[in-house]
Amino acid sequence: MADVVAAHSIQGTPAARRWFAASLGVAVASLVAVGGFNAWVDPFQQYRIPGPYPARYYTSLHRYIAPGLAKNAAYDTLLSGSSIVENTRNSAIGQSCQGTGLNVAMPALTAAEQSLIVSTALAAKPLKRAILILDFNAFSGAPDQRNPLAGPIPRYFYDRNPLNDLPYLLSWSVLVKSWRIVTGDRSERFRTDSDAPWWWADEKRFARDEVVKRLDPRDLNAQFQQPPRELAGMQESFRRNLLPLMAAHPQTEFVLVWPPYSVVVWADFVQRRQLDVSLDFKRWVFATTRALPNVRVVDLQGVAEITHDLDRYTDLYHFDPAVNEWLIAEACRDRYRVRADNVDALEAELRRQAQTFDPGLLGHP
Amino acid sequence: MLFNSYDYLLWFLPGTLVVFFLLGRRPFAAQVWLTVASLVFYGWWNPWHLPLILGSIAFNFAIAASLRKMARRSVLALGVAANLAVLGVFKYADFFLDNVARIAGDAPPLLHLALPLGISFFTFTQIAYLVDVYRRKAQEPVLANYALFVTFFPHLLAGPILHHSEMMPQFAERTNKRPQWDHLAAGLYLLAIGLVKKVLIADTFAPIADAGFGAPSTLTAPAAWVAVLAYTMQIYFDFSGYTDMALGAARLFNIKMPINFDSPYRARDIRDFWHRWHITLSRFLREYLYIPLGGNRGGEARTAVNLLATFFLGGLWHGAAWTFVIWGLLHGLAMVVCRAWGAFGRPLPRGLGWAITFLFVMTTWVFFRATSLDGALAMLQAMAGMNAAPAASTLAWLSEVQARLGTLLAIPPAWTLVPPAIGLVVVWRRANSNALAMRFRPTLANGAFVALALPVCVLQLARVTPFLYFNF
Fold it and tell me: Is the peptide bond prior to B442 cis by the omega test (within 30 degrees of 0)?
């Protein structure tokens, strides 16, 4: 009897053991149930496409959904860029580039994030072509710079390790989304068109007066407040984020596209003394990648019939869906390809346009 | 590694516990395992800080060994000075250089050293140990035991600040290497309480406090008071929640650590407050600073100086900024006033004493929370109603916070006033975690609480926020 009492005093009471096992067991079982439910519904398409329910593309959750698409969708041509290419349909990519397209655009994309999503895609499958839209702002700041406005980036989605997916599987907000999907609740903002998951063009007007109304001709940068850049930093960012990808995947064709900002952007660069650094960076990118046979640089920034037609824009950066389609078509053609024999002429023409455009003539609507 | 993270709760803690008990028949192996696991815990964020803590352990163990052979004051002074030097370089060098630059107009460039996690805590723990060895109150001839005492992960990053004498006998106890269901049950219960306090309560106050302290010059007086009250609640639930989780985790390993909080907002005077708030820091400062300075043995004036010096350093310990220094000095001054009032022999009515103490503590938190002196003064100005903000902005500000909170918690905005109300009731009226842990029984109600609280809190972890005390 004394032994039994002594054993209990060391090991604890049977009631405590039962309590511990039952409490922890119920807690763990609850978590397993939630995790299993979230994995099955898979609101961010991380494990399979198609899932058991129609896909939902939530506004502002690009960084959560895009890696799932990159890993699980069927495609051979990837488009990566910032919000300016969100209005590009996957089917348009496929048609223009003779393949199957996937648009993984992200607003306020930085070079580090572009590297992350393209790496995720390349790790998932061999790609025929990766079209990377180069945005000067993406290379501003440190190589690992992120835009604080973009919100957190769920890095655990950008790999194949399911063990680190717990923030997804065991998340209250994901559980709420899963429940809403299963019950058909449509109270959140999302799109269901898998061909154009990020499309926002229907909510904006593309017109000159729309562009001009938010502009201060004396301070063209006032609207977007882009930071100043310096060449060495941009080069380092490109060298760290994109160059290794292109060198490591010779079987994939990389198309680096300089997108057709409105000419107002170039006038802004002149105003802020950012023209030289921008043009120097473009020239350096071409010089750095020309030795790689799997890389083409396409420059659409001097195409005046687009960039001077402000009716095609909703602000100085963002163009309409027709320009998106044109951009993709040109990305897969050679018409605006930068070559050793035209790089000087392209640069001279862009410099001329930038310096001769008078923002004072924009007037106000 | 954060206590409120998936990695800790779902992998590290269960894995460490299971292996620890599997090694239970080999106590030394279990102890080594716990030390290694604690170092993994420490190095999780920045493995480059591991050499620092390992070097610190080796150095202090060597100094202690020397003191054990011969208790020389010079060796103790060397040990304490070296510990303070390391703390000074990592924590205070830039503060010092910045102030030199302000005064002299020129100074060497700032070092910009990353502050190693928990450095204030493991430095103080080891200084206390050296002093105790010198006083012949402690000795630990086995390096593995000493390393576990310093690194034991539940207390490593944010305390409680431990005494060697209260921990080593527990580590040495062989039966503590075997599962003890009473401890496991109580530990799990305490862990769940701490998790609820941190994840469901403190993090709910955070957006209110952050919004207010983010733009104090725009606040009307009521809005400023709401923001400061929110921070008052946040810091208590955050730090005491962290401590509960630490105590709970330690209890799972059959280790009882000292309590660190005892309903501090019920204090009736400032002395009472410091007997209830961050108790192990108060104990350290009293035993290793205030009393060696002379304590209250040199007359009233000398006692006042000692109190101010102790609280000045206590404030500085919390952070290398003038805001912390002012916070410490204000509390030191309050202790002097409290002591002087006590000499009159006319204690304040209980309610009045409590109200004055709570208001003082709450107001001084402004210096603790503000990121600059200007920010603190702006908040005090707002609390005094001296901002030019229109009265309507109070409602606008609250509405905005409510909307943000509502989105965060997935509840209607109107319900967001419920957590602060619950917080106040819990702080003032309900039994605190220590009392709950003391009277814990493996009942159905407690089981239901744990079974519900753990999954609900884990599901909230995706919005992980760092513990406030990791800054100190």
Answer: no
In angstroms, the separation between the Cα of residue A33 and the nearest Cα of chain B is 10
State the greatest distance between any 2 C-alpha atoms of chain A, in Å, as a whole number: 101
- Percentage of chain A lying above the pLDDT 90 cut: 76
Q: Is B164 labeled as catalytic in the residue annotation?
A: no
User: Mind listing the pLDDT tens digit for each residue in B189-239?
Assistant: 999 999 999 998 888 888 888 888 888 887 778 778 888 888 999 999 999
How many Å lie between the alpha carbon of B152 and the closest alpha carbon of chain A? 22
Cβ–Cβ below 8 Å for B462 and A17: no
What distance in Å separates the CA atoms of residue A248 and residue A254, rounded to the nearest whole number? Answer: 11
Contacts of A150 (CB under 8 A, 6+ apart): A63, A106, A107, A108, A109, A110, A113
Determine, for residues A10 and B455 on separate chains, whether the beta-carbon distance falls below 8 Å: no
Helices (H), chain A: 2-11, 14-41, 62-72, 90-97, 111-124, 166-169, 172-183, 208-212, 231-241, 243-248, 263-271, 275-289, 304-307, 321-331, 343-356
pTM: 0.83
Are the beta carbons of B459 and A170 separated by less than 8 Å? Answer: yes
Pick from B184, B452, B460: which is nearest to A20 by CB?
B184
Distances (CA, A) of A52 to A68, B1, B324: 15, 36, 55
Distances (CA, A) of B186 to B23, B183, B268: 22, 5, 30
Tell me how many helices (H) and strands (E) chain B has: 24, 0
Separation of alpha carbons A154 and A167, rounded Å: 9
Percent of chain B with pLDDT over 70: 90
| CA A238 centroid distance within chain | 16
Q: What dihedral angle (degrees, nearest 10) is formed by the CA atoms of A97, A98, A99, A101?
A: 30
Residue identified by tokens 């805001």 is B323
Cα A211 from Cα A263, distance rounded (Å): 12
Predicted confidence (pLDDT) at residue B154 exceeds the cutoff of 80: yes
Of all residues in chain B, what percent carry a pLDDT higher than 90? 46
B114 interfaces chain A, CB cutoff of 8 Å: no
Looking at beta carbons, which residues of chain A come within 8 Å of B188? 20, 23-24
Residue B455 to residue A34, Cβ atoms within 8 A: yes
Average pLDDT rounded to a whole number, residues B377-393: 77
Each residue's pLDDT tens digit, B290-321: 998 888 888 888 999 999 999 999 998 888 88
CA A119 to CA A99: how far, in whole Å? 20
Residue A305 confidence (pLDDT) above 80:
yes
Looking at residue B394, what is its pLDDT?
Answer: 55
Q: Does B188 touch chain A (CB under 8 A)?
A: yes
